[in-house]
Write a structure and sequence with these properties.
Helices cover 40% and strands 15% of the residues. By secondary structure, the protein is an alpha/beta fold. It folds into 2 domains: 214 residues; 249 residues, Nitrilase/N-carbamoyl-D-aminoacid amidohydrolase, CATH 3.60.110.10. Helix 6 runs antiparallel to helix 7. The protein is globular.
Length: 473
């Protein structure tokens, strides 16, 4: 082991890359959780053994490069929707973003090097605390990108996800990293029993709490019947003007499936309407005409202003009644870099991957939408659902969460599965049910305890009818 810890050059870098990949393989949908032990224990041991500040930093950086490359490879798939325009960006997406995110993990191991004189029994807790600080920073700095936080490994089970209600995904990250790095003390030979016993106790307590919470809280429902429409429109034709009418007809046909007369609320996914949405338009009247009198439609779509000198467009969510009247509008506020806006546009010579809409304008922030007798909900468009601190507007009025998304960009990769599990965690954290309408899937109904009540798999066309779950009491 001493020989391994003293590796230098390509051997050390290769080992750290592999340990980072191990961490990514513990994330959904693979869930190889035992790999967390060599991943975090190995990183702890190597960084404690670093000979210099530079080596300590790059220990974490190489680990992060492996972790984020393996965990975020699916971003590259979006570049091949229009390969003639964007395929050349593949190396930057595959390695450039992980290289930037690796700076965060590099700072963790650099800080750990300066903490190695602390009592050995405290090292796993210090290590876990530094990693959680990295995850919080990654969620907030430079527009934020908290994808695949370590705590999401516990979405493997309804039971193990329950403590997120008490400690959020960040607390789950702390427990996970502490438990996965404590075995390193056996290698160091420095008082390993107490930290490892505590790690086992934490994991057992998580499971017991989860079992008890689920056992005493069955899913309860409102009398609001909802229909999710999953049209499964492939991204290559999504914004093809010649396909727009057929896309709209497909949404309408699915909406009008048998049983529509009993539905109070129909939900279409992100950007479902392939035209700009304007109030009092013929388009809205035609869409409204398909709805029974008592039925409302919630749909994603794009809108723009009419100012010729200051044109703006928004990625939005609309509530429409049977008369085609806009009852409410919400504008997405957390935009996707390079997908919905270009950072440093004056410097970077690239287009938005999402097409010819230019940079989208930002909405005002989290909101609660309340219409008629529908329980007030918090809208989350696309990856707004991955931000733990922005799930609701904080007013306490929200009774359920709605995530509309279009994951067609990422094909049959791990991306849509990861996105679903992050949204599912928001339900547990807030104690609110979550409804997810995804263009190509995975659409799902999730109760406030994270249980998936109903779902429609990836790359399937269909509808999901259900009664809206109640929030936990």
């Amino acid at each position: 082991m001493d020989k391994v810890l003293n590796y230098t050059g390509w051997k050390r870098r290769s080992l750290l890359l592999l340990l980072g990949v191990f961490s990514a393989l513990a994330q959904p949908p693979v869930y190889l959780l035992p790999l967390l032990i060599p991943s975090f224990s190995g990183l702890l041991l190597l960084s404690l053994n670093a000979k210099s500040n530079r080596e300590a930093f790059f220990d974490g950086w190489w680990w992060g490069l492996g972790c984020f490359t393996a965990g975020l490879y699916w971003i590259c798939i979006s570049l091949y929707v229009e390969p003639e325009k964007f395929a050349w960006l593949t190396p930057f997406a595959l390695f450039g973003l992980p290289a930037i995110l690796g700076i965060y993990t590099g700072l963790v191991t650099l800080a750990l090097k300066h903490a190695r004189q602390m009592p050995s029994a405290l090292l796993p807790a210090i290590f876990a605390g530094l990693f959680v600080a990295e995850e919080v920073a990654r969620a907030h700095l430079f527009s934020g990108f908290p994808w695949n936080l370590t705590g999401y490994v516990w979405t493997v089970s309804d039971v193990t996800l329950q403590p997120a209600y008490l400690v959020s995904v960040y607390g789950l990250s702390f427990i996970t990293i502490y438990a996965a790095s404590a075995p390193a003390l056996f290698v160091l030979g420095k008082h390993p029993l107490v930290p490892n016993a505590l790690a086992v106790l934490l994991l057992v307590s998580m499971s017991l709490y989860g079992w008890d919470r689920l056992d005493h809280n069955p899913t309860q429902y409102t009398d609001i019947k909802v229909r999710i429409v999953q049209p499964d429109i492939v991204q290559t034709i999504k914004w093809n003007p010649q396909a727009s009418l057929d896309i709209l007809k497909k949404h309408i046909a699915l909406t009008r499936s048998p049983g529509i007369e009993t539905i109070r609320l129909v939900i279409w996914p992100e950007a479902a309407i392939p035209y700009y949405v304007e109030p009092n338009s013929v388009l809205l009247r035609d869409i409204g005409a398909i709805l029974p009198e008592h039925t409302l439609l919630i749909t994603g779509g794009l809108r723009k202003n009419g100012d010729i000198r200051d044109r703006k467009a928004w990625n939005s969510l609309f509530v429409i009644n049977h008369n085609g009247i806009l009852m409410a509008t919400y504008d997405k506020h957390h935009l996707v870099p390079f997908g919905e806006f270009i950072p440093f546009r004056n410097i970077l010579p690239v287009e938005n991957i999402s097409g010819g809409h230019g940079d989208f304008a930002k909405g005002r922030g989290p909101a609660t939408v309340a219409v008629d007798d529908i329980s007030p909900f918090s809208p989350l468009i696309c990856y707004e659902a991955i931000f733990p601190d922005e799930t609701t507007d904080g007013t306490g009025r929200t009774k359920w969460l709605l995530n509309v998304t279009n994951d067609a960009w990422f094909g049959r990769s791990s991306g849509p599965y990861q996105h679903l599990q992050m949204a599912r965690t928001r339900a547990v954290e807030t104690g609110l049910p979550l409804v997810r309408a995804a263009n190509t899937g995975i659409s799902a109904v999730i109760d406030p305890y994270g249980r998936i009540v109903k779902e429609l798999p990836l790359n399937e066309t269909g509808i999901v009818d259900f009664y809206l779950p109640l929030p936990n009491s």
